[in-house]
Amino acid sequence: MKHDLVHIQGKAYVLVPLHEYRGMTAAPVGQTDLPAEIMDRLFARSENPIKILRKFRGMTQAELAEVSGLSRPYLAEIETGRKDGSITALKNLALSLNAPLTLLIADNHLSE
């Protein structure tokens, strides 16, 4: 399949349809029970991934905080982007949400 090439600030980027990108970067088949709609929202990065997954799992902030061993205010700060969340907190959230940790890590963590 042909992809578009775009130059931004002197760097070349390839535009890939979201469903193809998701297929290239998602967890191997069988490691997640998340439907395509949720995966698309997660990879779009327009919403906080923890909030997306928490709502998909039908949990309140208080419930997720309790099972993750976090305070609800700390979880709220992570969901709103006021705090990044420690790696331990993110690991606990990933376990509690039954999701790969890589889905929760913000893009700024990946570049560090």
Structural features:
112 residues; mainly alpha; 434 Repressor (Amino-terminal Domain); two-stranded antiparallel ribbon; 7 helices; disordered C terminus
Written overview of the protein:
The chain is mostly helical. It has one domain (31-110): 434 Repressor (Amino-terminal Domain), CATH 1.10.260. Helix content is 51%, strand content 9%. The chain has 7 helices and 2 strands, in the order ββααααααα. β1 (4-8) and β2 form a beta hairpin. α4 crosses α5 (72-80). It is elongated.
Short description:
The protein is mostly helical and 112 residues long.
Mean pLDDT value: 81
For the secondary structure, the number of strands is 2
Strand-pairing-aware structural class: mainly alpha
Give the radius of gyration: 16 Å
Number of helices: 7
Classify the fold: give the CATH topology.
434 Repressor (Amino-terminal Domain)
Helicity range: 40-55%
Poorly predicted residue ranges: 108-112
Sheet-strand content, in percent, reads: 5-15%
Shape by Cα distribution? elongated
CATH architecture field? Orthogonal Bundle
Cα separation of the termini = 32 Å
Total of domains: 1
